Amino acid sequence: MRKPLIIDRSQDERFMREALALAAQGAALGEVPVGAVLVHEGQIVGRGFNCPISRHDPSAHAEMVAIRAAAQALQNYRLPGSTLYVTLEPCSMCAGLIVHSRVQRVVYGATEPKAGVAVSRGQFFDQGFLNHRVLVEGGVLADACGTVLSEFFRQRRQKG
């Protein structure tokens, strides 16, 4: 039987700050600054930041990297009872992975109007054909998450 989910807003912000720190690591490498942490039983078990450019891997989104690390740490391809914190609304690829890995809850910061599928371009997690339900909450430290992205792209445009 699954433990009841207790939501602690201060914990949400704490873990989102961890994801923001990871986003900064990605930005330092020239990657789009998105960071993610996967938390299980109050502990971070997976960390990731966008790194498709440096890894030559189009699937190396922050969520993908964090979920892969968590699965290895927990020695389980399924991650029930876990929460994924990510600085940007997930895309369709990451949303599929979140469902398949049985993440219980996703907390994201900024919306992604071009490709986000939690609310921006559709409500993927609400689709009736899915065999797993994911709780989704957006807007945690949204301003900070959005600023990191805006600043990154502003600097990139200035460099030409």
Q: What's the overall geometry?
A: globular
What strand order characterises the main sheet? 2-1-3-4-5
Helical residue percent band: 40-55%
Average pLDDT number:
95
Number of helices: 5
Model description:
- This protein is of the alpha/beta class and 160 residues long.
- 40% of the residues lie in helices and 18% in strands.
- The protein contains five helices and five strands, in the order H-E-E-H-H-E-H-E-E-H.
- It has helices spanning 9-28, 52-55, 62-74, 92-100, 142-159, and strands at 35-40, 43-49, 82-88, 105-110, 135-137.
- The chain has a five-stranded mixed beta sheet.
- Strand 1 and strand 2 (43-49) form a beta hairpin.
- Helix 1 (9-28) packs parallel to helix 5 (142-159).
- It is globular.
- It starts with 8 loop residues before the first helix and ends with a helix.
- The mean pLDDT is 95.
Question: Which descriptors would you attach to this protein?
Answer:
5-stranded mixed β-sheet; 160 residues; 5 strands; single chain; alpha/beta; globular
